[in-house]
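Example 5.3 — Clustered mitochondria homolog
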Amino acid sequence: MGVQTQTESQAEVQTQTETLECNNKRVERGVSTQTNTGTTKEMDDWEECGSVELLLLEAQTSQKKKRDSCCDLEVFADLELPGKAGRQTDKDKPEVTATLTNIQDIVELQETGFTVRIQPPGTESFELQVSGQMLVVELHQVLMDHEITCHRTCFSLQLGGTTLDGLKELRSIQGVRDGALIKVVEESYSVRDARLHLRHVRDLLRSLDPTDAYNGVNGSSLSYLTFCTRGNEGNSLVKRRASERESVDCSPPEYILPGSKDRPLSLLQPVREDWKPLQCLRVLTLSSWNPPPGNRKMHGDLMYLNVVTMEDKELNITSSTRGFFLNQSTAFNFNPKPAVSKILCHSLVELLSQVSPAFRKNFTALQKKRVQQHAYERIAAPFQVFTWTAPHGDHTLDCVRAEETHTSYMGMDEHTAGQSRDWNEELQGCRELPRRSLQERLHRERSMFKTNSDFVAAATRGAAAVIDGNIMPINPGESLHLQMFIWNNLFFSQGFDVSEHYQPLGGNTAAHAAAICDLRGAQAIKEGLHILGTAVVDYRSVRVIAQTIVPGILEKNQEQSIVYGSNDNGKTVFTHPRFLEMLDKASKPLRIQHHQVLDHNNRPVELCSGIETIGILGNDGRPYILDLLRTFPPDLNFQFSETEENKEEVPKECQSFGYPCHHHHSLASLRPELIEAFVQHRYEIFMKIVSHELSQLTEQDKAAERSEEPVCDSNTGERAAAMDDIGQRKLIVVISDCCFISDFVEIRRTNVILKACRAVGSVSDSYFDIRFNPDVCSPGARFPAESLEEVQRQRRLLWEAAAFLLSHQIPALRDCLDHTVMPMDGATLTSALHQRGVNVRYLGTILMELDRVEETGRLGHIQRISISEIILRSAKHIFRTYLQDVEPAAFSAAVSHFLNCLLSSSSSCFPDSCSDELLSRRKSRRRRSYGARVALLGDSVWARLTSSELWARIKAEAQDYYHYTFDRCVIEKHNLQRISLLREIAMKTGIQLREYVFESRHKPAFGEEDVINMFPVVRHLKPTSSDATQLVQQAQLAVQQGLLKEGYELISQALTLFSSVCGVLHEDVCMCLRLLGRLSYILGENALSHQEKAVMSSERVHGIDHPQTIQDYTFLALFCFAGGQHSTSLQLLYRARYLTLLVSGDDHPQVALLDSMLGLVLHGLMEYELSLKFLQNALTLTSKYHGATSLKYAHSHHLLATVHESKGEFRSALHHEKEAYSIYKSQVGENHNNTKESLEYLKSLTQQAVILQKAINQIYSNTPSACIPPPKFSTPSLPAILQQLNLTCGIILIPLSAKEIDDLQAEFKGEEKVKAEELENHFLKQNKLSSVDKRQQY
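Solution (predicted structure tokens):
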């Protein structure tokens, strides 16, 4: 996307290069929300939510005394790792005990740290725990957040009278050790320091205000875990006593109970007590007397502030180089002299505390609440998370917000005092940092992550400013869609076809898709190439591409810039040896084939990428790669051109599904996950062919050896008997025969490899190497005559890959029957498809495949989510064109009208009459009918849209793009939940709403005031820690082998590295915390600390209603119950069930899991009636999604039986347990433990029922001497309840001896090596024969 737009503008851009450290003094260990493509798949494999039981060995028992004699076998579903590691050979697998990084370095990073004393000015010193790896500037940040020193910003740190260097680590400074005294020394202010101080004070005053999180600014996002667990208390889950029994009402709200259809949206963001307004000032703003005149600057004045205290006292404050003081100015009279000569404070907070008692009181209370918050709630995330709902709050005065908005429009960085950053130089400089040692790699990756996060934030602000019209285009004469912009040293273009460049590929549709294709290509290239910083921002239905600027590209002509590739669809093609060398290294992991195309002179030109990929030599001497549109092979099932395909060329698997079919553009490509799966599949075929052929060859060679051995022995005897001329000639003949046999055997082995390579489509005839030509379907690529045969082979290979997707990967989605994958919304469904290499455009085919499954009802949730995703993605396509022609004043009315047409149950969907606020009231009163209201907006195209017209267009788009047909009543037919549909469309399009209702059929559901805002949807590159990723892979192998403690240590090390590179609010850190929590639980250790952090991190990183957040809430509830916090566990499960109902509805397997857990917890709390409600609903859902003969269904019956027994309802208990026993007996046999336990329980229930019936009969018989035994009603045992909870969540404890563990581990390792050893034996035999033949030659 870059060169087509950047090279068209010939303006000169003045840039100012700065180093990373100077750009931002506030160096932070940044935070991320995503990981790279390769890492994501492996990490998602860790976290697949399901119930497939994986046996994990653990040498531990609940009693330490028995540790030597027995241990527990843990079955933990969520730790199943079916990803790439399962396909690795022993040669490729790293050893569990040996890491790829220096363990000692990681241990140093994990050191406990030491304590220093901090001496602030004017107060007592205090102790602070620090780490040796902490930079001095990071200690500066810690003190700015500390309760005692939070009001200070402009200070230095001194040790023994020497000022500490901000960029040095504490351990490298002489004298910094345990007990060292570090003094906080006040420094003089500059204008920049004063502005940063004002911003910091503003942040402190608003630290408990969620407004920034609602508005999606300053890295703020929401977290409600403490609302569910702590309430207004200050204790975290970890600090509570295990024996604590909270007296909390266990009865859930009505909307939580099974059967309720009420989905109140207000409960998604409940009102927190600690978020109630605690106002310290009425007004804090910049004075109109700014800037200070020249004579006052000579006295040190920097700026003037206006303050109105809670006592309604107006203050005029001067910010000077020495601090803050009151001046004598008023609103109309400028008098900068001090009002009180003795009051001069270095901090604004100190000054306000002296002059306003209310400020001092409220600020102290505010800081106490702030420091009680968990650190994960206070830290700002560098990648902004937006919420699709928000309350309509009041707009308040905020001078900092106003000034930041102004500087943002001017393209200035908020921390660099009006300077702009050279983003390209920073990003490329970070990539060029050394990476020989672990410390160097951490420094490099930390710098890359921080710079990228800053770049994404700047790109997002710039893209919003472009759409809002706040930036002047560099080509103002063009139409709005073709205009380009330069702002803050970033280049912005829009996702439209400029100069018809994409016309052969699909026009505007191709231009819109090209941005994401380019971003995916850039993400796939790991190292070795200079790529531009790129971010794709969808804002108000317009796609904006933000890129760093190649040095010098705006000063050259287009023809002078390009030295590799083609920028005009193949009319002119260039190549360059430097780019070929670099791309050759990158092409191997991407499986891109070297190929030749014809240039403009009909001469063959060698390329190692798609023809659209551009190579440019910048003025800085770096080779830049742009437009990585065809990094991955094309998908021949979806084609843009109308050319007729040869039916013999198209595989039968593709024809059976109706492929190939027409697509909107020609950039449809196969996913990298599919390429890896296809190559792995071909490799297995290759090895089978080679193994079979070599085994036959071995047998033939053995037979040949046996037939030739007597001849060789007789000749040897002749040589020993006589050395005459005749014997020598015979010897020469024998040696020649041996040489001939050896060459013949070698030729046959070569032919075996050749046959196997051609059978699987390898580009090499001597070894396995599958590669793809990305230009096979490029409309502008022309191939030499001698390459046409190879091009046809490549085309057949692409068809085979497309057929593999249909025949192997899509049917593999049937594993949803086992619920190893349990999507809850469109995002998780998309992630599940991508893990298997299936593109979302195959959703229509997936629905066809689901209809062929025998047990279709068990995949009903997948069907509903797939249909919803097709509908909403089609609606998003229409919404994109719908909103582009709407005038800014009518945005809210147009969006609400579109939502009404899409989701409202009202038959009359007319635009809101209040869409024009400037209409007079008299005119509004006269026109009360809906028809008259629409007439006011009759000139607007968007206002004429009707519900029937919108759904007709959605139906047509679904048929055209996804090849799926549905009728108008699809919502009612498939029982789609409207609130879930609204959530999905809002998140996909960036709409932010407030509360509404769907029930009214006489009034549209959405009004103009319901649409609060529209936020940008951002996609960007996702750097992470490579060393930590390797540790995760090693931990994966350790856990697979049952080495849980080793896996725990490796995950802990990975957590240290991820945190060092990305900060604590990062998706990978969240994953590590989640796994540490579960492993700690299995190991019998305290898991609450890890899981509590994982939940908060998930809320902050993914969102408060993300399915992963729901999953984390579920496991935190389990850990809380195990820790004795039963009512807290119940509240967490209520929250998880509410979120699940909101996201997926009440007809989903996740609801069955939650209801089983809720029933068990309520049973433990002796709330039997409530327990039965949830367990009965769980039984119904389990029967539907797991089958009436499944073990989970039997378990649900057993749980109901135990509750009925506790109530004394033995007849019902017997009924349910008989059902459970029948299932166990038919599924696992009479000798299984579950069957035996069920039978024993049946006998116990029968005996109790008989005793109770006898007692009742004796009562009714009026027998005076009857001895009536008291009825025995079992009370729930909390350990038994916990055991059932573990079983429900996929955890089984099985006692094993130490010898059994060793045997199982040996068996596990032995099975892994069998196949490899068998194959190696074939090669060893052949090599042995070859070496014998060669020795015979000499």
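Remark. The mean pLDDT is 81.
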